[in-house]
C-alpha cells in the first residue's frame, strides 16, 4: 500500500510511467502502462523483472523481434462474435496484419527455444491456428482489398464491369473525336463529372450533341455532356458496381461467419501482442536509463550499489553531465538512515532515489543501479515529501506533517518503508525537534525501515546513540564551498549555514552577529562536524589515491609475471634445442664409427688403409666437438639507449629503451622489463638475429603509425568489441594516453555495449562523450591510466 495517494507523483513515479507510455506502439500497450501498480507479490514481481530483462537482452544483443503491426483485434473479435454482423475490408486487414505479427513472433521464439523462458511463458499453451490467416488470405490481397476472384460471382461481375467500361470509353472517345473535328469541343480532354465520363463542349454547341449535361465551368463557357449513346453503357457499369458491392458484403459476411468460432483465440492473440508491446516499452526505457535487474530478496532490506535517480540521469544526459552514483544499505542493523548535510547537497535526491527505485522494482521495472544491488518487497511504502497544506481542511504545513506522522506511527510495521524529507520542520525548532525525535523513536521500535533527511542536531545525536538508527551525511567540500553529492554513512553532517551564507555574499558583520547568537555548545558541535567532514574528504582522497596505486601495482605485477613466464619458456626451449642437437651429433658419430668398422671388415684392409680411415674418422669427430676457448677478461663496455643487450642468465636479447641509475629498461618483443646494469651485457647488432631486429623495427613502425582513433560504425556488436579489444591492447602496450571510438548514435545500443565492455579494463580511467558540436554521444573518448 502506498500512502499518501500522491506519493507516486512526489517521488516521480507518475513521470516514469509517462516516459514508458511514450515507447508503446499501440493504444493497448499505453492502456497497460496506465495500469502499472506497485505490487507486493514476490513471484509476480520477479516474473515481470525477468521478462523486461530478457527483452532488454533481445534489444541489445539479438536480432530485432519482428514486431510491426499492433491493432485492437479484441474489439474486432467482439464485433465478429455477434451473429449477422460482418467485418469490413479494413477491419479484416487489421486482423490479417496482426496475425502475421503473432506468427512471426512465435516463430522467432521457437528458433530460440529455452533462451528467453520468461517471455516464452507469455504464449505458453497458446494454440497456433493458421487456418484463420489462410481464410483471410483467400479473400484479401496484401493491400487489404478483396481479391477479384474471391468468388465466381465476383469474378464475373468484375469482368462485366471491365467490359462495360471499355465499351463506354471506346464509344465516348469516338464521339469526342467527331465533336472535335466539328469544332464543338472546348480545350481539354475527357473528364469525370458526378462519377460519369463526360465531353467538354463549348456552351454554344451544347444543343448539337444529344446527351445529359452534368456540369458547367465557373465561367459558363464550357459544359460537360454525357452523350446519349454512352448513357446506357454507364448505367450498366453503375448497376454492376452495386452488384459488386453486394457480392463483397456477402463474401465478408461468409468470412466473418468462418472467423466466429476462433474469436477466443483472437482475443488470446490480442493479449499476447498487448503484453509484448508493454514489455518492449519497459525494456526500451531501461536502455535509456542504463537500468539493470537487481537481486530480489525476501527479507525487508535495500542495498543499492552505484544507483542513480532515473529522471535526474535523463536530465543530465541531455546536458552531457554525469550523475554521482548513490550507495546506501538499509537492513536489520541499520534500519533507518538519518541523512544530514548542507542545503542543495543532495539529501532529498538521495531519499527520493531510494523511494523511486523501490517503487519501480515493485512495479516490475528495471532500475539504474548495479545488478549486484538488492531490494526486498515492502508491504507498505509511506512518504512525507514537500508542502501538503490544505485550505479545504484548514491544515497548515506543520499540521499536515503531523497528520502523516500520526498515520505512520499507527499503521507502520516491520514491512514498511518510510521516506521523510526535512523531518520535524514547519514549526518552532524548540518543539519540532523533540516531537520528531519521539516519532522517530516510535518508528524505530516498530522495526520500520526508511530514509529520513533533517537539519536537527537532536535527531543526529539520537541516531548516533540508538540501535537501529544510523547517521549519514552528504559530503561537502568546505574549501571550495560546493557539495560533492556523495553519501557517507556513519557520521552526521554539518548544514554549513555560515559557510554557504558567506559564499552567497551575506555581509560579514551579519554572519558574525549570527555566530554570536547561537549557543557555545551548538557552535562546537557544528565546528566538530565541519572538521569531521574535512577529515572524511581527506580519507576519501587518500583511499582513491591508494586504489589507483594498487591498480598500478597490479599492472606491474602482471607484467613481471608475464615476463617471468616468457623467460621460463625461452629457457626451456633453448635446453630442448641443445639436447636435440647433442642427440643428433651422437647419432651421426655412432653412424660414422659403424660405417668405418664395416668398411674395414668388408675390405680386409691393410694397415695403410686402416690408418687413413682412422684419420678421416678423427677429423669428422673433431668437427662436432666444441673446443673450450679461453676468453680474456675485458672491461664491460658502457651501455647507452638504443644498444642491444643480452641477459646474463639467459640467451634473451633486447634493446635498451631507458637508463635509470643502475637499472636499464629493456624492450623484449612486446614486453618491457627492468634489469640491473650488471645483469646484462652489451652485444653487437650483428649478433642479434635478423627476425628479432625486424620484429623490433616493425614494432617501432607500428607505434609511429598507430592512430588513436577507431571507427566501428555499421559493425555488429561482437565484431565491434573484437576490433576494440585489439586496438585497446595495442594502445595500452604503447602507453597511449587517450583514445577516440566512433560508434555513432543510433538507438544508443552499441554505445552502451562498448562502454560496459570498457569497464572490464582496469587500465581505463574513465570515458566521456565528445563535445555536442563534434559528435556528442556518438563518439566515446577513453582515458587510460
Automatic annotation (TrEMBL):
Residues 710-785 form the Smr domain. Belongs to the DNA mismatch repair MutS family. MutS2 subfamily. The keyword Transferase does not apply. Keywords: ATP-binding, Coiled coil, DNA-binding, Endonuclease, Hydrolase, Nuclease, Nucleotide-binding, RNA-binding, rRNA-binding. InterPro entries: DNA_mismatch_repair_MutS_C, DNA_mismatch_repair_MutS_core, DNA_mismatch_repair_MutS_sf, MutS, MutS2, P-loop_NTPase, Smr_dom, Smr_dom_sf. ATP binds at residues 341-348. Homodimer. Binds to stalled ribosomes, contacting rRNA. Acts as a ribosome collision sensor, splitting the ribosome into its 2 subunits. Detects stalled/collided 70S ribosomes which it binds and splits by an ATP-hydrolysis driven conformational change. Acts upstream of the ribosome quality control system (RQC), a ribosome-associated complex that mediates the extraction of incompletely synthesized nascent chains from stalled ribosomes and their subsequent degradation. Probably generates substrates for RQC. Endonuclease that is involved in the suppression of homologous recombination and thus may have a key role in the control of bacterial genetic diversity. It comes from Mucilaginibacter arboris. The keyword Coiled coil applies. Its EC number is 3.1.-.-, 3.6.4.-. One of its GO terms (biological process) is negative regulation of DNA recombination. This is Endonuclease MutS2. The lineage of its organism: Bacteria, Pseudomonadati, Bacteroidota, Sphingobacteriia, Sphingobacteriales. Transmembrane segments: none annotated. GO terms for molecular function: ATP binding; ATP hydrolysis activity; ATP-dependent DNA damage sensor activity; endonuclease activity; mismatched DNA binding; ribosomal large subunit binding; rRNA binding. Residues 529-627 form a coiled coil.
Amino acid at each position: 500500500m502506498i500512502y499518501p495517494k500522491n506519493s507516486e507523483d512526489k517521488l516521480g513515479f507518475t513521470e516514469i510511467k509517462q516516459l514508458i507510455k511514450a515507447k508503446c506502439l499501440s493504444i493497448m500497450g499505453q492502456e497497460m502502462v496506465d495500469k502499472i501498480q506497485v505490487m507486493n507479490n514476490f513471484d509476480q514481481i520477479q516474473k515481470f523483472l525477468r521478462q523486461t530483462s530478457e527483452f532488454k537482452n533481445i534489444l541489445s544483443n539479438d536480432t530485432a523481434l519482428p514486431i510491426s503491426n499492433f491493432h485492437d483485434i479484441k474489439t474486432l473479435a467482439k464485433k465478429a462474435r455477434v451473429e449477422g454482423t460482418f467485418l469490413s475490408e479494413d477491419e479484416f486487414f487489421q486482423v490479417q496484419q496482426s496475425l502475421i505479427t503473432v506468427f512471426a513472433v512465435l516463430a522467432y521464439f521457437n528458433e530460440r527455444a529455452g533462451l528467453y523462458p520468461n517471455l516464452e511463458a507469455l504464449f505458453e499453451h497458446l494454440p497456433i491456428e493458421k487456418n484463420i490467416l489462410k481464410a483471410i488470405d483467400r479473400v484479401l490481397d496484401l493491400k487489404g482489398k478483396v481479391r477479384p476472384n474471391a468468388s465466381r460471382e465476383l469474378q464475373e461481375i468484375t469482368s462485366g464491369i471491365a467490359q462495360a467500361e471499355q465499351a463506354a470509353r471506346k464509344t465516348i472517345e469516338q464521339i469526342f473525336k467527331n465533336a472535335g473535328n466539328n469544332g464543338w469541343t472546348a480545350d481539354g480532354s475527357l473528364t469525370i463529372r458526378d462519377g460519369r465520363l463526360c465531353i467538354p463542349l463549348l456552351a454554344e454547341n451544347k444543343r448539337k450533341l444529344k446527351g445529359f449535361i452534368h456540369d458547367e465551368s465557373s465561367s459558363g463557357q464550357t459544359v460537360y455532356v454525357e452523350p446519349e449513346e454512352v448513357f446506357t453503357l454507364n448505367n450498366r457499369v453503375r448497376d454492376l458496381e452495386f452488384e459488386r458491392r453486394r457480392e463483397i458484403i456477402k463474401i465478408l459476411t461468409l468470412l466473418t461467419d468462418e472467423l466466429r468460432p476462433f474469436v477466443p483465440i483472437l482475443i488470446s492473440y490480442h493479449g499476447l501482442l498487448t503484453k509484448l508491446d508493454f514489455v518492449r516499452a519497459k525494456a526500451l526505457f531501461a536502455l535509456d536509463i542504463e537500468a539493470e535487474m537487481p537481486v530480489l530478496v525476501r527479507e525487508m532490506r535495500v542495498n543499492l550499489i552505484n544507483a542513480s535517480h532515473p529522471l535526474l540521469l535523463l536530465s543530465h544526459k541531455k546536458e552531457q553531465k554525469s550523475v554521482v552514483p548513490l550507495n546506501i544499505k538499509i537492513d536489520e542493523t541499520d534500519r533507518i538512515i538519518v541523512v544530514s548535510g548542507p542545503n542543495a547537497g543532495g539529501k532529498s535526491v538521495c531519499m527520493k532515489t531510494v523511494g523511486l527505485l523501490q517503487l519501480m522494482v515493485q512495479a516490475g521495472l528495471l532500475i539504474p543501479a548495479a545488478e549486484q544491488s538488492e531490494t526486498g518487497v515492502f508491504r507498505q511504502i509511506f512518504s512525507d515529501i514537500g508542502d501538503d497544506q490544505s485550505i479545504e481542511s484548514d491544515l497548515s504545513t506543520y499540521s499536515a506533517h503531523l497528520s502523516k506522522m500520526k498515520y505512520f506511527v499507527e499503521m507502520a510495521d516491520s514491512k514498511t518503508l518510510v521516506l521523510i524529507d526535512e523531518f520535524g520542520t514547519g514549526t518552532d525548532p524548540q518543539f519540532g525537534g523533540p516531537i520528531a525525535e519521539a516519532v522517530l523513536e516510535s518508528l524505530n521500535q516498530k522495526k520500520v525501515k526508511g530514509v529520513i533527511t533533517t537539519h536537527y542536531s537532536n535527531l543526529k545525536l539520537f541516531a548516533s546513540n540508538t540501535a537501529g538508527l544510523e547517521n549519514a551525511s552528504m559530503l561537502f567540500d568546505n574549501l571550495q564551498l560546493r557539495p560533492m553529492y556523495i553519501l557517507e554513512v556513519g557520521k552526521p553532517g554539518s548544514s554549513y549555514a555560515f559557510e554557504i551564507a558567506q559564499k552567497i555574499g551575506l555581509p560579514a558583520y551579519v554572519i558574525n552577529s549570527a555566530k554570536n547568537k547561537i549557543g557555545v555548545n551548538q557552535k562546537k558541535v557544528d565546528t566538530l562536524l565541519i572538521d569531521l567532514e574535512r577529515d572524511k574528504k581527506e580519507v576519501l582522497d587518500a583511499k582513491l589515491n591508494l586504489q589507483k596505486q594498487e591498480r598500478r601495482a597490479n599492472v606491474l605485477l602482471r607484467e613481471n609475471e608475464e615476463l617471468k613466464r616468457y623467460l621460463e619458456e625461452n629457457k626451456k626451449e633453448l635446453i630442448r634445442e641443445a639436447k636435440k642437437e647433442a642427440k643428433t651429433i651422437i647419432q651421426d658419430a655412432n653412424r660414422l664409427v659403424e660405417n668405418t668398422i664395416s668398411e674395414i671388415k668388408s675390405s680386409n684392409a691393410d694397415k695403410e688403409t686402416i690408418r687413413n680411415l682412422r684419420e678421416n674418422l678423427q677429423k669428422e669427430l673433431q668437427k662436432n666437438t666444441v673446443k673450450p676457448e679461453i676468453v680474456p677478461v675485458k672491461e664491460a663496455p658502457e651501455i647507452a639507449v638504443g644498444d642491444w643487450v643480452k641477459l646474463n642468465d639467459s640467451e634473451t636479447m633486447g634493446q635498451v629503451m631507458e637508463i635509470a641509475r643502475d637499472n636499464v629498461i629493456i624492450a623484449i618483443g612486446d614486453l618491457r622489463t627492468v634489469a640491473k646494469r650488471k645483469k646484462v651485457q652489451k652485444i653487437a647488432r650483428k649478433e642479434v638475429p635478423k627476425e628479432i631486429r625486424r620484429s623490433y623495427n616493425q614494432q617501432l613502425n607500428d607505434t609511429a603509425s598507430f592512430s588513436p582513433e577507431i571507427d566501428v560504425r555499421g559493425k555488429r556488436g561482437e565484431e565491434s568489441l573484437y576490433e576494440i579489444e585489439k586496438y585497446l591492447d595495442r594502445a595500452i602496450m604503447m602507453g597511449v594516453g587517450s583514445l577516440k571510438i566512433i560508434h555513432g548514435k543510433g538507438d544508443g545500443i552499441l554505445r552502451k555495449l562498448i562502454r560496459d565492455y570498457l569497464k572490464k579494463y582496469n587500465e581505463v580511467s574513465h570515458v566521456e562523450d565528445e563535445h555536442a558540436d563534434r559528435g556528442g554521444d556518438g563518439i566515446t573518448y577513453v582515458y587510460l591510466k
